[in-house]
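__Protein archive entry__

___
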Amino acid sequence: MIAWLAVAALAGSFADSFTGYALPSVAVDTDDGFGAGGRTAFAWYKEGYAPYKMGLTASAYVATSGYQNHRLRLDRVGLGAKKRLRVTAFLAFRQWLNDRYYGIGNGTLRQLPYADVTDKGDPRSRYYRYRLFQPMGQLTGRYQLADGSPWEIFGAINPKYSVIEAYDESLLEQEQPYGYRAGGAIQLVGGILHDTREPEIAPLAGHFLEASVRATPSIDRQAGGFGGGLLSARFYAGGERLVLAHRTMAEWLVGNVPFYEMVHWGGSQPIAGFGGGNTLRGVPFGRWRAPGKAVAQTELRWAFLRHELFDDPFGWELAPYVDVGAAFGAGLQGPAMPLHPGAGGALRIIWDETFVGRIDSGWGLDPVQLDDGTIEQRLNWGLYIFADHPF
């Protein structure tokens, strides 16, 4: 608490205004179960700085499945003699006791003996599961190339340590892909951005374009020895009441890629998941993985109600959406769908243009191979309660 007050006092000396909140959080994620925790966020504002001069957020979250996600993020805008440098420091600890591994490739199928298990005490329920423990951090610097220019260059360093524990007789234990022994890694990231979003956190217009590369040298066991490039484009068009939002993102990794890295994205803002609540809603987290991956997501965000809360603007949105994705680069695949769709709707709240809360619900297809060899596309439902827009 003393540290928080010290930061607030220091920031208050160079800010015109300040907002902050501390809220308990309760969430349901169909991949990770019911969970609870807390989130606190502070923002210091000053004329000439956007979206704020400094932002500080911290959150802690624990789910009944054993999943944990604890995060601390400090974002400082307008550093340097020309006030063009933005520095973001990020620390996190993530733990999955039931992360999913279905094999590598875009055509992996669930086998029927393991697809219909509902009893969590049945050993077959862990056939597609494993445990992953992962402390990590990232320090990112973004530099604006000219005053008022949307062009920026960025660089980041991302240390990470991963521990893998396979369940007995699980698919992961049988296949033991590269990354099974895990270990420590230091990832280097760099690229160029073109950012015209307005406002940044809940955009009504503009775009965010990114081209970046990342490289992770081999320094410990099976956690490194790979690199690749990412292209990402986000577009926003509309106005105060109705916004069409779209993101297309693709990444290709080469070298020795740990299997758990295949579902994580590089870039200026690390994103976890191919499937799950951020990239392919309705599809289980990590359902498909390969050295290459791509997603396209479109939302129609309708602000149906606006009012004030504690003298700050507060808005409510409905957002129907469609997602589609594919994993590639793992050789020839079986007779499965080349593209994996997801669709659904979301309820969002936006407070003071700095906090976004969301409940996303969607459906995706999950192919299961039956006893006679035929493939049944089963409907999978996902419910996700998170902070921040997915993009």
Q: What stands out?
A: Residues 2-12 form the longest helix (11 residues). The CA atoms of residues 276 and 362 lie 10 Å apart. Confidence is low (pLDDT under 50) at residues 1-6, 8-12. The chain has one domain: 19-387.
